[in-house]
Design goal:
five-stranded antiparallel sheet; alpha/beta; 13 helices; 552 residues
Length: 552
């Protein structure tokens, strides 16, 4: 089925506030589609598959980094912010993706990585060459070491990939890298850094991108003097308490200047913050009217399959965004976390129920590639194929992010499942044939068709999409039930047993296969399944791990 889509950015006048209810699909370029047969996903592969995303029904595509990079951290170590890495194609390929996406009614958001660059970036290479005291070093955090001969790092900060956040260079000075040693942090107190990134924003905006996902948006500004933490295992504190290297108030001045640039361009260009903060209220500060437009809701992503915890996360998220007038975002998976089908437990039924719940909530939603296929995490990759940089270090992150980055299955009965003609850079499981796009297309019981139907309903039903509130309804323990303005009720059974609920009207969509009959209070019938049967004129039995959308 071909869906109706919103106008392309250049046609989006007057303002539509498209981003307030947008469903944005994350493409991890390495793993989406391979256009040249080398086993690695690329821009040509993305371009060829754009009609699939149009038909899925998303509003925008977010592309993870494709910039020139030594790939020490899968492209998040950028050597040239204005060039495409040859493994992904050329700048002409990027322009073709933008052009085709806009022709299909899709907007395109690209990653920008402002906290750090690659150690092969021309600025950093110059800083190393010119030595201590050079102005080139002022664009980074170079410091003398502690100890009698400067043999100790300048402070006790730890890298998120394990070990000290400092590396010593041959002339004796140390430089700061909150991630891998190949990713030196910029010093955002330096005017040249600020000017350069405003120029980079304009470069991509001039090419037609519709916005930016800001990597490590909370990390740009460090506390004055770079004070010690006084605490080991600092990664465990991420997102839980104030840190001298994250979420400093100075970042907001940076984003106010970025908003000025974004507002210079037509078509409602946006910026989305990846901001790990101690509270939802701190996240909201990034979204004041003169700063960024959205931020990822990690509080929700990190919430388990528990009705009380989910209700708290939903309420606190909406409450935090309301004072700044920003839409709440909802996300279940991305390229850095275990896929939610595996993470939440409960298998595919629970993953489908979680997806339908997310798409019913007010605001904007993010779908990670393959989520719409019901892909599980690949947990048995052999060590010799892993490429996550933290896997090769002794501490820090668990190093297992490769499991959510396995290339997508498109068609066929065996790997590489239509990903490309030359295999795939990470091995795909031998049992993924039923999960391919080809196998699921047209099957009304498939996860792909569930997402297609849900996204189509989000475009047409007045009770779905933008907003900032839900009305909670009485429900048994372990069940969420809420009403959205516009005549939609969502019920979610997070328990492992069926529960009896009121029939709220006509069933619009359910996360499980349906058969039989459900009778509503107005004698409205809808397709139901055998274990979702009427228990009375106004009641139904809702199976375990099931979400239902009702039209009142």
């Amino acid at each position: 089925m071909t869906l109706q889509h919103k106008a392309a950015p250049e046609q989006a006048t007057p303002a539509t506030d498209w981003w307030r209810d947008a469903v944005i699909y994350q493409v991890y370029p390495r793993s989406f589609a391979d256009g040249n047969g080398d086993g690695m996903g690329d821009l040509a592969g993305i371009r060829a598959r754009l009609p699939y995303l149009r038909d899925l029904g998303v509003d925008a595509v977010w592309l993870s980094p494709f910039y020139a990079s030594p790939q020490a951290d899968a492209g998040y170590d950028v050597a040239d912010y204005r060039a495409i890495d040859p493994m992904f194609g050329t700048l002409a390929d990027a322009e073709a993706v933008l052009r085709d996406a806009h022709d299909l009614g899709l907007r395109v958001i690209v990653d920008i990585v402002p906290n750090h660059c690659s150690d092969q970036h021309v600025w950093f290479r110059r800083a190393l060459a010119e030595g201590p005291g050079s102005t080139a070093r002022d664009r980074f955090h170079f410091r003398k070491g502690r100890g009698e001969n400067g043999e100790l790092p300048p402070n006790d900060w730890e890298s998120l990939f394990g070990g000290p956040a400092w590396t010593r260079v041959p002339d004796g000075e140390w430089y700061l890298h909150l991630f891998a040693p190949e990713q030196p942090d910029f010093d955002w107190d330096h005017p040249a850094v600020q000017d350069e990134f405003r120029s980079i924003l304009r470069f991509w905006l001039d090419l037609g991108v519709d916005g930016f996902r800001v990597d490590v948006a909370h990390g740009l500004v460090k506390a004055p003097g770079l004070p010690d933490m006084g605490h080991a295992e600092q990664l465990t504190l991420l997102g839980n308490q104030a840190l001298p290297f994250f979420d400093q108030d100075g970042v907001h001045e940076v984003y106010r200047s970025w908003r000025t640039v974004l507002d210079e361009y037509p078509g409602e260009r946006i910026a989305v913050a990846e901001a790990w903060t101690p509270t939802a209220e701190r996240t909201a500060l990034y979204l004041r009217p003169d700063e960024l437009h959205q931020a990822f809701n990690f509080h929700y992503l990190n919430t388990g399959w528990d009705a009380d915890a989910l209700r708290e996360a939903i309420d606190s998220s909406l409450d935090a965004m309301r004072p700044v007038g920003a839409p709440t975002t909802w996300v279940l998976s991305n390229h850095d976390v275990v896929r939610h089908r595996t993470r939440l437990g409960g298998g595919l039924a629970r993953a489908r129920a979680a997806g339908l719940l997310m798409l019913a909530l007010p605001g904007s939603a993010y779908v990670y590639q393959g989520e719409e296929l019901g892909l599980p995490e690949v947990t048995d990759l052999p060590d010799e194929v892993r490429q996550d940089p933290s896997f090769f270090r002794n501490s820090g992150q668990d190093g297992l992010r490769d499991g959510c980055r396995v290339p997508l299955p498109w068609s066929g009965e065996a790997p590489p499942y239509g990903f490309g003609t030359g295999g795939s850079w990470l091995p795909q499981p031998a049992d993924w044939a039923p999960l391919t796009v080809e196998a699921q297309t047209g099957d009304p019981s498939s996860t792909l068709e569930l997402y297609r139907t849900a996204l189509s309903l989000r475009r047409t039903h007045p009770g779905l999409g933008a907003g900032d509130a839900v009305e909670w309804l009485d429900a048994p323990a372990g069940v969420l039930a809420f009403r959205r303005p516009g005549g939609l009720v969502c019920t979610v059974n997070t328990t492992e047993q069926p529960v009896t609920l009121p029939a709220y009207g006509r069933v619009l969509l359910a996360s499980g296969p349906l058969a039989g009959t459900v009778t509503g209070p107005d004698d409205v019938t809808a397709t139901g399944r055998d274990d979702m049967t009427a228990t009375g004129p106004d009641e139904v039995q809702l199976p375990a791990d099931t979400t239902v959308w009702w039209a009142e």
